[in-house]
Amino acid sequence: MTNQWMVNEINKIKKEKKALILAHNYQIPEVQEVADIVGDSLALSKAAAEAKEEIIVFCGVHFMAESAKILSPEKKILLPAIDAGCPMADMVTAYKLKEYKKNNPNTAIVCYVNSSAEVKAESDVCCTSSNALKVVNSLEEDKIMFVPDKNLGNFIKGKVKDKEVEVWPGFCITHHRVKGLEIDRIREAQPDAEILVHPECNKEVVEKADFIGSTSQIINYARKSNNKKFIIGTEMGVLHKLEKENPDKKFYLLSPGLICTNMKKTSLEDVYNALKEEKNSVLIEEDIRKKALKPLNRMLSL
Ligand code: 13P
Ligand code: SF4
């Protein structure tokens, strides 16, 4: 089977079944190209919630497809690579969070969407990297626990003045490994380039960057900037859109380690098989789903 044959089949079956294909900005180029919408976590959550289609093929990792299912239980949400998880999402459990809540009853739990449905069910409000500050500022509580990403949590903590923000000790294994020294070296080699990084990077990287934002915020920034050279401090998948949309600009990856193996698990063949056989449907226990829906809806209503 050639790629072109598979692309044609995917488009044909998609029409017949009235399905929608969503892909995260970190997916491989071939998968991004067959998707109806390519975006960051927030855009994809909104698209899943608003979609009229009854079948959604979610090309991303498990928590993303799960969030779509929480928002749209009546739809069939298919995850083409069923073993594509997020190691950071596994760094907080509902059990540990419940224990924390017992000891800290007046603290609001802000939950990054990179988390399980069970953890969301124990949280007050969800956020993504593009709206985390807005979400935290919208809360009445003075004390916040940010789960599970300590890097995004600390980035927000530095921007919030009137609240006490505690962070859970989780992190993204892909972004966290980038070193401040890598920024210093690249700055010296490319002094005229702008450095754009994701807030999942650690403090020493974030502090030295020119712009910090979600995957789509990075893409939008590069599109609007008059600069011609950019150093990209997030997963390499974003390079596809950046290069496609800006043929006159140059993009370099900040670190060779910026590859998320889980985001790279979805192949074109997986998309084809999931769509054709309607397999890898994401399921959630109804009482957990109902509880997890509240913090997600609270985020989306902001
Ligand atoms: P965003 O697309 O929201 O920036 O998320 C990044 C990420 O790590 C998703 O797993
Ligand atoms: Fe999880 Fe990091 Fe991969 Fe995103 S890039 S899915 S946070 S491991």
Automatic annotation (TrEMBL):
This is Quinolinate synthase. It is an enzyme of class 2 (transferase). Binds 1 [4Fe-4S] cluster per subunit. Iminosuccinate binds at residues 24, 41, 112-114, 129, 198-200, 215. Its cofactor is [4Fe-4S] cluster. Gene3D superfamilies: NadA-like (3.40.50.10800). GO terms for biological process: 'de novo' NAD+ biosynthetic process from L-aspartate. Its main location: cytoplasm. Keywords: 4Fe-4S, Cytoplasm, Iron, Iron-sulfur, Metal-binding, Pyridine nucleotide biosynthesis, Transferase. [4Fe-4S] cluster binds at residues 86, 172, 260. It holds the Pfam family NadA. It is found in: Cytoplasm. InterPro entries: NadA, NadA_sf, Quinolinate_synth_type2. Pathway: Cofactor biosynthesis; NAD(+) biosynthesis; quinolinate from iminoaspartate: step 1/1. Catalyzes the condensation of iminoaspartate with dihydroxyacetone phosphate to form quinolinate. It catalyses: iminosuccinate + dihydroxyacetone phosphate = quinolinate + phosphate + 2 H2O + H(+). Belongs to the quinolinate synthase family. Type 2 subfamily. GO terms for cellular component: cytosol. Its EC number is 2.5.1.72. One of its GO terms (molecular function) is quinolinate synthetase A activity.
